[in-house]
Amino acid sequence: MIRILDLCLRLTIWFLLTADVSPGNIVIGVGVSLLIPWGFTPISPVLKDWLRTFGEILVAIPQAYIEAIEIMLRPHTEEEIVMERVKPQRTPGLIFLDIFLITFTPKTIVVKYHDDGWYEVHRIRRRRAP
Questions:
Q1: What is the pLDDT of residues 81-92, one digit of tens each?
Q2: 82: domain range?
Q3: Contacts of 121 by beta carbon, 8 Å cutoff, 6+ apart
């Protein structure tokens, strides 16, 4: 089941990059997705993490619109870089989705992923009243 989710994620990224869903491109995309090396992942808890992450993405979509409107109406002049811990036992696909989720919202972007389990996240915020 996890392999299918990884394959779907890879194909989705392929289609977003090529913007072409012709039969030839689908065949090439499946081939490329299968040629990319697979990592070892434990099966049981990972499915639950995938479903939770997809739920978080669905919540992030309206949040992104709200944040975009908020930035247009009230300027955000303060910025900071914070370190966020990667959730434990994340597969490379889930780490990618976490980075996507953080970067999807307009106020945050992942600047760097550290192999020891941290994200550097750049955030903007409104200036606090003195």
A1: 999 998 887 778
A2: 59-130
A3: 81, 82, 83, 84, 102, 108, 109, 110, 111
Number of domains into which the chain is organized: 1
Residue 79: beta bridge partners?
124
Q: Element (H or E) spanning 102, and its range?
A: helix 92-104
Domain annotation covers residue 39: no
Distances (CA, A) of 120 to 3, 68, 108: 29, 21, 10
Q: Express as a percent the part of the chain with pLDDT over 90.
A: 20
Domain membership flag for residue 114: yes
Looking at the domain assignment, is residue 40 inside a domain?
no
Read off the pLDDT of residues 24-63 as tens digits, 9 standing for 90 and up: 988 988 888 888 776 655 555 667 777 787 888 888 888 9
Report d(CA 116, CA 37) in Å as an integer: 21
